[in-house]
Amino acid sequence: MKQTLGLILLILPFMLKAQTPYYAERFRPQYHFSSQKNWINDPNGLVYHNGQYHLFYQHNPFGNIWGHMSWGHAVSKDLVKWTPMPLALREEDGKMAFSGSVVYDAKNTSALSNNKENPPLVAVFTAHDSANQSQHLAYSIDHGKSWTKYSGNPVLDLDMTDFRDPNVFWHDKTRQWVMMVAMPNERMISIYTSFSLKQWTFQSDFGPIGDTSGVWECPDLIQVPVVGEPDKKKWVLLVSQNSSMQYFVGEFDGYKFYNENPSNKIVRPDYGSDYYAAITYKNTPDRIPISIGWVNNWNYANEIPTSPWKGAMSLPRKLAVKKMGAEWVLVQEPIKALRAIRSTGQVLEGPIAVKNGYMLPFRSNCFEMEVELKPAITSVSGIKIAVGGNRNFVIGYDATLEQLFIDRTNTPSGFSKQYPYFAKKNAYLKQQNDKVKLHIFFDKSIVEVYANDGELVFTSQIFPEENDTGIEFFSDGNISVFENIWFWPMRSIWK
Hints:
4% of the residues lie in helices and 49% in strands. By secondary structure, it is mostly beta strands.
């Protein structure tokens, strides 16, 4: 009897783990996309087609560490609730399917469809093996459900070990396809053009410029509206490098990109530790640019304590730019469709004056929150979430330095030696009318912070203890004021 009981106690944890339903596991995001199981990284092929938003992504079908790169696939009607789809592009013949893009070839310029009434979706992606990276095509004539690799691959091959991540779009003025593709080690983005998607002509290089401390990857060149000027647009070039991202704002003539911000200026779409490889949707109904990024960091991506999945996507973000002084600034805001998964909102009557700490009357690790902070002069103040014991995640504002910062020093970190090196992040943020507006999303293990209507964004992973659900306003002994406080528990998109 004792032996039987001992055996049961021994295997019970494994039985319980096996019985845990998908999307109910510890740390599992409830309103950020993640795959049912196994590894994911870069978003790929973001395209709207036939009433659906398609999300392709780098995926290992065989485990939850990097390897065997293929394209996973999910679809959504609203960019909020997702339906998993079968694997789209598989690793074949020793070649992995690395990152790329998908376009709707409405005029069948590629001649990859035999039916003019049914133009194809065309994926342009990097085929990778240990010796070579080259650009390949695949196409779908059933609205993205199944894919056929082009028999004439590769369509662009420079016989290079590192040459990847093609991002293709149709340029209206020159009436041709444009490809942005990374030259990682050269810290450059090469620009090619084509009339057919099959034959490509080199036009120009951009870079090295800005942050050249790591390899350049995953370019995306898009047109975005200018805040307050509805008829005006600017071109924004997104580039990923060394587990972070940067962007450039300027003009594009179909052949060359012209950066208009200072050449030595480094600006980032996200100043947190866990945002990478973001690209934007193509063919959206209103042509409003919407981006999605990978929430992870290459320095510890394989080690994060999640199972059976690893990696997630950011919330979809609507993009614009505005002129601040002499410089263009990228402005991002979470899409309004996310409001559909809010539970009943709670309002804290304010203003609330805080000298040291003030615990909020609600607890949660899955919520959305808006608050305006009026910091005391020369103070450090802000919000602590995931509070429990001596543990917390800090979203703070240093009024003396005019910096917004995040700090996960006091969150569990023992799973990785590298993770603590990325605990603190900060960036310059000027107050608006003596206030800092904070829009916070906390989703089990992902935090996204949008400040001053999206002028500044931080994304970070944390892995709190299960009871670390407290929320606290704090100030360093000077009186700071919190007002216009809204709080919404968020419903799961998987139920």
